[in-house]
Amino acid sequence: MIIDKVKKLNGEDTKRVKNEKAADMMIGKWVKCDSCKEIIYKEDLHKNLSVCPNCGKHFRLSARRRIKQIADEGTFEEIGADILTKDPLKFDGYLKKVEVLKEKTKIEEAVKCGICEIEGEKAVLGVMDGNFLMGSMGSAVGERITLAIETAIEKELPLIMFCVSGGARMQEGIVSLMQMAKTSSAIAKLNQAKNLYISVLTDPTTGGVTASFASLGDIILAEPKALIGFAGPRVIEQTIKQKLPEGFQSSEFLLEHGFIDKIVERKEMKSTLAKLIRMHK
Amino acid sequence: MAELTAWDRVTLARQLERPKASDYINSIFEDFIELHGDRCFGDDKAIIGGIATLNKMPVTVIGEQKGKNVKENMERNFGMPEPEGYRKALRLMKQAEKFKRPIITFIDTPGAYPGMGAEERGQGEAIARSIMEMSSLKVPIICIIIGEGSSGGALAIGVGDKIVMLENAVYSILSPEGFASILYKDSTKAKEAAQNMKMTANDLKKLKIIDKIIKEPEDGAQNDFETIVEEIKKYLTQSIKKLQQLTEEELLKQRYAKFRNM
Ligand SMILES: [Zn+2]
Q: What is the structure's pLDDT at A27?
């Protein structure tokens, strides 16, 4: 999605911009909206919460940016940062791949959890990061999330989880599958303790994350036009041997079918969360 | 005879003639009464469930049901449940809790069905809820993987106090073919994938994912079915008795710790 080299660009619009801003583009100051094809100045995009100013498309967010948007400035205190990737299957090349990725992305794992304030309301906030192996859930992700849930119980705080995931962490095999049981069991405990749990589904939320904590919120919110499902669209198409209709498994589709409570635009997200937390105090 | 490879076991686990959930249910228990429907949408034939007795003690049994020929498999959707299957299973498990009956599940599925209807009716939600609810049901739960235990579709009825596997059953995050096509970009490397995925009973016992292996002949469970049935029956009787000696609180604490440590 992000264009860092001029040679990747094409089309009329691009040509115009290219002439004007060729130098800027060489160092990656521009992105193209893959929804409306508009070329956007990155800084403008970020000022607009990474939502396309032209068509309203919600770009995917890193955990760092998401936390900045949701947590009051300077209040986020990370928990479980010392829980790192494990290699239970001794899978060839896995840890090496993770090391390279960590170096490249400066991200330690596919979720970041912590205690923070949201408009002054204290909460446990977990944010997944799709830039790290597609937000897949391995043992470190499951462990960090479970620790976050247990912290919410212990400190009697509401829990907010921002989900984005391609599903299981294949390289961790069966241990990855068991994270679904671990996190869901912890949510059961959270329910018994009567803490509020708001799950926010963002693009894309699929596989084992959909089939565990993501679908278990007291209130389930979603960003507009996110892909949300258990099976990925390609797997379904291969199974039924036909193309899926436009918008299948979108947030709007899930709302229509009764599986989420509300679609919330990014600019309303923080205030909506704060409002909901206050209503449960 | 050389040790069977992981792929040999995958092949055995998928054999048409391998005993299916209904075979075990009808042989281990007396008086099985099948109960139907999720009270919401329909009755999924890929999951069967009901009440039976084990040495005169009422129990709830649930199983993912594959067929033994094409016709049966069409009817059972090859053991691939849709949301209503998991919702039926959960309804029966809640019923078991109400009447304080132990629960026994038989796992045998290539995965939850990835179809349009299944997505429209909330496959992810159905699996998630079943997993969450099983973690806090106040009765003993024993899960037995009898053939293929693949993905969240298997785990949905797999959160128990004891996880048992037949020696030639397999349990994994997805099929070795799927794994190979994702990680090796080559679905023909399934044999290699099966080896590396650590999906056999022996591998999973070492990883502490399962508690008990039920021995079976090298050419498959169908060749010594009666002995296997007796072994399962013996294990169920003993372990249910032990689990029933725990208080509800101890039982749930132990189950939480089991998955918490995985
Ligand atoms: Zn746009």
A: 62
Rounded to the nearest whole angstrom, what is the distance from the C-alpha of residue A48 to the centroid of ligand 1? 12
Measured between alpha carbons, how far is B252 from B140 in angstroms, rounded to an integer?
A: 9
Q: What interface predicted TM-score (ipTM) does this complex get?
A: 0.98
Residues in chain A: 281
Cα–Cα distance measured from residue B62 to residue B51, given in angstroms and rounded to the nearest whole number: 9
Q: With contacts defined as CB-CB under 8 Å, which chain A residues touch B6?
A: none
Rounded mean pLDDT, A129-155: 98
Alpha helices in A168-250 (DSSP H): 173-192, 207-210, 233-240
CATH 3.90.25.10 fits A60-279, yes or no: no
pLDDT at A12: 45
The string of DSSP codes covering B91-108 is: HHHHHHHHTT--EEEEEE
Do β-strands A197-205 and A30-32 pair in parallel, antiparallel, or remain unpaired? unpaired
Q: Give the integer Cα–Cα distance in Å for B113 and B96.
A: 26
pTM as predicted: 0.94
CA of A81 to the centre of ligand 1 (A): 35
Above 70 in pLDDT, residue A1?
A: no
Domain boundaries, chain A: 1-59, 60-279
Query: Hunting for tokens 């993501």 — which residue is that?
Result: A214
